[in-house]
Amino acid sequence: MSPQEEIYRHLIYATAARRIPVLVMCNLTYRCPLCCKHCFAEDPEPGGEELSLAEYASLFDRLVAMNTFFLTFSGGEPLARADFLDIMAAARERHFAVRIFTGGSLIDERLAAEIASLHPSGVEISLHAATPELHDDFVGRKGTWEKAVAAARRLRELGTSVVLKMNLMNFNYTEMKEVYELSRSLGGAFRYSPCISVTNKGGTAPARLRMTDEQLRDYFRTLKDWVVAFSRDGDACDEEIGPPVRFNKRALSCLAGANNCSIDPYGTVWPCVSLPFDLGNIREKPFAEIWGGEEAERFRALSDVIAEECANCDLDRYCSRCPAFSMLEEGDIRKASREYCRFARAAKEVLRRPLR
Amino acid sequence: MAYRLKKKEIAYRKIGDEYFVLTPDDNMLHNVKGAGVRIMELLDDGKDEDGILQVLLEEYDAPAAEVEADLASLLAELAEKGIVARNDG
Ligand code: SF4
Prior knowledge:
The complex is a heterodimer. Chain A is built from 13 helices and 9 strands. By secondary structure, chain A is an alpha/beta fold. In chain A, strands 6-5-4-3-2-1-7-8-9 form a 9-stranded mixed beta sheet, covered by helices on one side. Chain A starts with a helix and ends in a 5-residue tail after the last helix. Mean pLDDT of chain A is about 90; it is low at about 230-245. In chain B, the strands form 2 sheets. A 3-stranded antiparallel beta sheet of chain B has the order 2-3-4. In chain B, strands 1-5 form a two-stranded antiparallel sheet. In chain B, strand 3 (about 20-25) and strand 4 (about 30) form a beta hairpin. Chains A and B meet through helix 1 of A and strand 2 and strand 4 of B. Iron/sulfur cluster binds next to helix 11 and helix 13 of chain A.
């Protein structure tokens, strides 16, 4: 393990053990200029009143008091908020490490310079193809690929760390290598994930984009050849704060709610953006009360429950089951995820032994 | 030589008895432990090297030359990591 991984691991496990919400994802808005076909984000409260700058500033003060260190701004498109830079400045004044998840289409020269001047720890730009037309068609807006790549290039020139993020689907997975090379040529990092979730309300449209079994095997063959070049195994879970957590057979197999959570634009706190367990709303109660409250404890208790179907599974070494997939698709966090079982079967068939 | 914490550039938080610092230029996460923690606190309070030395001399029962040398070496280490910078540069 590298010294960097050791520090991350130490931070992650120390904060999980002490229930410190070290990473908070703020979904600043569900508005977005794009229409990506795989989008998981269905607005839970269309027309609701988004948290104001003042509400965010007050939330950030409370998070400082609870030792939160990493803040991720996501959406929707977080940059669609007119006050995005003010929210980010409020976070940086409080010395949070801020990451931005964006489609990149709104970042022009001026905005790139303003973002860079606030020293984010990274800007993660979704880029789902190396071929501009393929990406533009997928996100539903012409010219997006050019804008996203120009944004990545400009941010790199300004010294900001950039990640190009790609979801691998049946129409684009063969372009993984090209997107990887593009990210390298820009001086950025590359992250990819073959996991396509249904929407946060259980809508199944994104599932139609999943790779077929044969494509999955093809993907794992590529991965096998590339394992030296790629630092990750494809599971994007928790990557922004370090290595993925080791898989276990608990119903709650990750650290959602233990040291991280997500807050939607209307103030509701969730253990994870994809886990529909309403822990409370910061407009009604201070964050600390929600984090230490009954709902949160009830959710955390799931980490003591064994996922029954996984208990005797011999594919577990190839599996990093995401509890949100079990919850949203199987209706029960304790169940196996058929989608992860499919990954695990394909991985075993091709790899013969786990990559890590 | 006066050092300052690069507050505008870095991200940092004291968690338990150590500081975690992220330096965005190289995207590295550092943890500062032991004597470095007190120095980070004093830098965060806006103290310069002389000010930090005065506080440490009051707090530690050790020869002044030793405290001064330790402080200089810890500041140099923090500078190497990109956590502090000299005021003149
Ligand atoms: S492969 Fe399926 S049954 Fe086995 S551990 Fe993964 S989700 Fe559970």
